[in-house]
Design goal:
This protein has 430 residues and is mostly beta strands. The chain has helices at 96-104, 248-252, 325-330, 333-336, and strands at residues 2-5, 32-35, 50-58, 73-82, 85-92, 137-141, 144-148, 156-158, 165-168, 182-184, 189-195, 202-207, 213-218, 231-232, 236-241, 244-246, 258-260, 265-271, 280-284, 292-298, 301-309, 338-346, 352-356, 363-366, 378-384, 391-398, 404-408, 420-423. It is built from four helices and 28 strands. Bound molecules: fe (ii) ion (FE2).
Length: 430
């Protein structure tokens, strides 16, 4: 293996016993390029030709307040496969906030668990007080990797092969782009949404493979909401208005307290290039959903799969270290209990039928993105270590047979949720 280390970044982080700054969550600060990776076991199949990308959270500076793992800066890890060989590189995403904190040599923004006013600079996104760290998600669209932030950030672009950075996506609107943009690999469209605390509270958009915005429309909601993901089929996009959102009275005083409200879940279905007046709302059982897997059309129905949370606002986790009980409950799948679930929206009658597909705690799933939006067969979900946001295995579902297989990783080894793979397109590359 050949290794090249990049000049070190500035860090002011001090050792601590924070459960999400130690163990498997210990931040990594080193940036490297490595070639000819050693194969420990077996052989890399020669026909794997492309890159694997993973967006991770690595705290660089001493937190101003109580660190939450979602506050940390984005580091992209890439493994590139070609001719049976693999190379690796990793880079921090040079967001405006990362660069500002490098210059300052300290944290300038507080985090999700901190009171309003902790930040030393104006914040970004729906919350308004946070650092846009671009660390939630990564996709490849129009030949560029796009790193995004769950509270709606500027969306940062990188070359998926070299990880060379090319700044914010020029098409990103003022209200930002939420994590979990969707790429329809069949058409080259990227679908996105954003949300905010000002009316109309949500927008939805489509960007074609050349980076041109071909649709951007308000999705009026009754108030500020906290959507995390969306779904799409060949012809429709599905947005959500779930009854788990900030307490409106407290929000006026800039206190971001999440509550379950006595409301149904609502799913807004509109044609891909539709406008606000085209949205049809379908009601379903109240829940919160972090991630969807896929959606497709069949006869009069639009079928959508995702993870239904049985207990979206869990009680403090008793087994957590003192002071971390609330934070750790919200990061613990055994507490919020996400279950593989199917929603069937009848486009003729407006009725919703729901179906539980599995009763294990599963989340952070992946499908073959080449068939996203169409009828599919396999789902790859992850399992997690009880009490922890640590993914300790996989469950593969065969939707045709109803069978599933489970694989648990050896103790102390953890998987990544929702990485992205991008196959190289040899044709046209010369
Ligand atoms: Fe997510």
């Amino acid at each position: 293996m050949k290794l090249e280390r990049l000049p070190p970044i500035k860090s002011s982080l001090r050792p601590s016993n924070h459960p999400y700054l130690t163990g498997a969550w210990t931040p990594l600060h080193e940036e490297v390029n490595a070639w000819d990776l050693e194969v420990i076991e077996g052989k890399i199949p020669a026909d794997i030709d492309g890159v694997y990308l993973r967006n991770t959270e690595n705290q660089v500076h001493q937190p101003l307040g109580r660190h939450h793992p979602f506050d940390a800066d984005s580091m992209i890890h890439q493994i590139s496969f070609e001719n049976g060989r693999a190379s690796y590189r990793n880079r921090f995403v040079r967001t405006r906030c990362f660069e500002a904190e490098q210059i300052a040599g300290e944290s300038l923004w507080g985090g999700l668990a901190d009171p309003w006013g902790t930040s030393k600079r104006p914040g970004f996104g729906a919350h308004g007080g946070l650092k846009d760290n671009a660390s939630t998600d990564i996709v490849v669209h129009g030949g560029k990797a796009l790193a995004t932030f769950y509270q709606c950030g500027e969306a940062y672009t990188l070359d998926p092969e070299t990880l060379e950075q090319s700044g914010v996506a020029p098409w990103a609107p003022l209200d930002g782009v939420s994590a979990h943009t969707k790429v329809d690999e069949r058409t080259g469209d990227l679908l996105f949404f954003n949300y905010s605390t000002h009316a109309p509270y949500m927008h939805y958009g489509v960007v074609d493979r050349t980076g041109k915005v071909t649709n951007y429309t308000p999705i009026p909601l009754p108030g500020p909401r906290l959507p995390h993901d969306m779904a799409f089929s060949e012809n429709y996009s599905i947005l959500n208005d779930l009854p788990v959102f900030w307490d409106a009275e407290l929000l006026e005083r800039n206190i971001h307290a999440v509550r379950v409200h006595d409301l149904p879940s609502r799913f807004g279905v509109l044609p891909r290039y539709g406008k606000a007046e085209d949205v049809r709302w379908f009601e379903a059982a109240p829940t919160y959903i972090l991630h969807f897997l896929n959606a497709y059309e069949e006869g009069d129905e639009l079928i959508m799969d995702g993870y239904f949370q049985e207990n979206p606002t869990p009680k403090p986790l008793k087994t957590a270290p003192e002071g971390y009980e609330h934070m750790m409950a919200y990061l613990d799948e055994a507490s919020f209990r996400p279950r593989l679930h199917r929603w069937r929206f009848n486009l003729k009658t407006g009725a919703t039928v729901e179906q539980r597909l599995d009763n294990r705690d599963l989340e952070f799933g992946m499908i073959n993105q080449r068939i996203a939006g169409r009828k599919y067969r396999y789902i790859y979900s992850t399992t997690s270590k009880p009490g922890w946001f640590l993914l300790n295995g996989f469950v593969k579902h065969d939707l045709d047979t109803g069978q599933s297989q489970q694989l648990t990783l050896p103790e102390g080894r953890y998987a990544s949720g929702i990485p992205v793979r991008a196959a190289r397109e040899r044709q046209g590359r010369g």
